[in-house]
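Sorry to interrupt, but I need a hand with the structure work. Could you write out one complete protein record for me, on any chain you like? Could you add the entry underneath, on a fresh line?
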Amino acid sequence: MAPLIAPHVPNPLTDPVVSPAAAAVTAFHRQLPHYAATPLRSLPALAAEIGVGQLYLKDESDRFGLPSFKILGASWAVHCALARAIGLPQSVSLAKLADAVRAWNADTESIAKGEKKELRILGTTEGNWGRAVARMAQYVGQVPCRLYVPTFMLPATQEILRLEGAEVHVLQGKNYDDCVAYVQAEAEREGSILILDVGFDGYEDVPQWVVEGYETMLVETDEQVLEATGGHVASHVVVPVGVGSIAQAVTQHYKGKSPNLYKKISKVITGSTRTIGAGGATTTNAPTTSHAEALWDGKHGIKPEQQTVVMAVEADTAACLRASLAVGRRVTVATADTIMCGLNCGTLSKTAWPILQRGIDYSVAVSDRQAHAAVQHLLHGSSNPRNSINKMKTTRRTTNSDNLGGDSMADDAGCSGGVAAGPCGAATLAGLRQVCSDARDVMKLDGDSIVVLFCTEGPRPYEVPFV
């Protein structure tokens, strides 16, 4: 499908915004089973090919055992929503909240008398979001969870949602935006707790909690980049956009005025630092203070003229951010099927749009062909699979296999290839390639650039586009 407007939109309105506090969210995530920071992959071969100094990929293909970053936002949102519903503070521990939720729903007599409502979660999803919500519903007292899904969702994906404990209803002939409207009405009718990552009039708290939940990923990324580069921060980051929640989190984080970043830089540069190189090798760098001093103005954190550039990537069949930036207001666009399922959203979250309008530096849209090519480039470490340094062995968990998730197939941190990603995750590489082709000078992408791609999902089944 041909783009309606130019495939890229620079944003002249960028301005610093304030990031939310991350300490409480990170502490909460550490209570979840199997918490561990996801890896930051170094991609030196692709960096050289694209023409940037250093290229890193934040690999969210295995987060708490799920193939996507979305459990970070879903878990915090479910926690906060349930705590509020039964009158507990957000600071309540996961274990205490789960006990309280079980006790609440076990009081069937009061529920039958209408003295209180059974705690139930409703939502809609195109795959990974619903899986994360359903998983969290099980963690927090086995709360009943019902998901409404678009007609194009693969039966295999529906079954995976059911295996997470969710009740799944397919809305025939409906797209994602239709499902949002439907589940909103259902939640209001029956008094259930609506858990979505998209904001609209009268529904803003939960989407904001979702955004706060993603801060854990960004804190990890900061620390990993500082360690890998010997005290430098990312000059450019690339994030995918669906309804805009993860892009909102990334924009707030990198455009915010945060003294915490300086503290992290100071911690790294006070002694020798370990840098992750090709093949997982490490080198030791002497201490330096020049970069920290250049960034820090003693009051506000990173100087505005040196702030990280934030670039957004959408599917060209659902480029609602690009269209909104072009006209200066939030608009809805018609969507079409895409292998980038998580980006197949025609309307930005109401809570995300003001942040994205002020903070996104550049918006680009990519096709299914570009996304699929990027999946292959990441898997082989080059645009030419024959140049792969560390080709992956053939397994069932290939990109278009029958597996929605599973363990990451990537090599150890530092490899130049072998990262298994889904189309939404690989879209950031496709977007970076297009920006380098169309606007390298405008975005100041050169041999000194330190670029981070947010790869938001692991390999999953999809129909390979005609190439």
